[in-house]
Amino acid sequence: MMDLLARRLSLVAEVGEIKSKYALPIYAPDREAAMLASRRKEAESQGIPPDLIEDILRRTMRESYASENSSGFKCLNPELRSIVVIGGHGRFGKLFCKLFYLSGYNVKILNNHDWDCAGEILIDAGMVVVAVPINQTEAIIRQLCNLPDDCILADLTSIKSAPLQAMLESHAGPVIGLHPMFGHEITSLAKQVIVYCDGRNPETYQWLLAQFRIWGANLHRISAIEHDQDMTLIQALRHFTSFVYGLHLAAENPNLSQLTALSYPTYRLELTMVGRLFAQDAQLYADIIMSSSQNINMIKRFHRRFGDAIKFLDNQDTEGFIATFGLVKNWFGDFAPLFLKESQNLLQQAHDTAQCD
């Protein structure tokens, strides 16, 4: 099996070169789905569990997508002047600098200590990407008031309304807001989501969106207002509840090793995600959660509903709990069984990787 995997990875490099030459995306969902279906059918005919084969193939393909990055990507706008990444030594800045570089673009980096020569760096910019912490983004954008008229101005911030407005006010040329919905530690953009919000002159940056697709990303277009409304639930509320859960655990001070050892995969996965939060930058999460009154108001509404739910316990109201459970279940509709199936796959992976003493 290892010999076959080694041979497969050696072929991946050749595949990557072909995809680069013909501007093909590293991730083709239809091709992947067809291959998985074919191999599942073949496995079943030989008495092998189809899920086993799919697990092996998915893990193998993930490694292949990462390996294909080293082959580079087709450059869709070779005439573009330099791409300047402000904050290019940061986590996301480094990732996008690497991807642009692998695609054959001339990449320049502008960081805090470079501002004395910012005019020289920005004078011929074809695109400027702002990849700095949230609490610095608007201030940095408002310093970019002398960019070339045709320069594309973009940001990579996880909030969109305020940065997008700042870009529109500071620059008269093309503007686009971007939010990569993944962590900086990824090795490939295959299957990763990039949200984009149109700002101005969208016809001038369609090549950029196509370039993202070649990198393997899935694109989701949305307005800045809708984006921030959704991120209130996806990011701010979830991060805050994880913060409070971690705060509660620390205050109760259980034996964390024992708690982990006794945990069913469901709770272990939940505990893992909470612990993941506290392994990262506190300032980042503070900025995300406190970035708008909309976030804070949502968290306060959640707090009130949590208090209302406590009444079921105080009153030993089992019937009320069950009735409310049913209302929420109806609201989830067909998503409930879908999420159950997805979670079972995640829990199995968590179980497979759990370490026993």
UniProtKB/TrEMBL annotation:
Functional pathway: Metabolic intermediate biosynthesis; prephenate biosynthesis; prephenate from chorismate: step 1/1; Amino-acid biosynthesis; L-tyrosine biosynthesis; (4-hydroxyphenyl)pyruvate from prephenate (NAD(+) route): step 1/1
GO biological process, one term: tyrosine biosynthetic process
Cited InterPro entries: 6-PGluconate_DH-like_C_sf, Chor_mut/prephenate_DH_T, Chorismate_II_sf, CM_dom_sf, CM_II_prokaryot, CM_T, NAD(P)-bd_dom_sf, PDH_C
Lineage: superkingdom: Bacteria
Subcellular location: Cytoplasm
Family matches, as Pfam families: CM_2, PDH_C, PDH_N
Organism, as annotated: Candidatus Enterovibrio altilux
Keyword NAD: yes
The Prephenate/arogenate dehydrogenase domain, residue ranges: 81-343
Domain Chorismate mutase: 1-72
Name assigned to this protein: T-protein
Gene Ontology cellular-component terms listed: cytoplasm
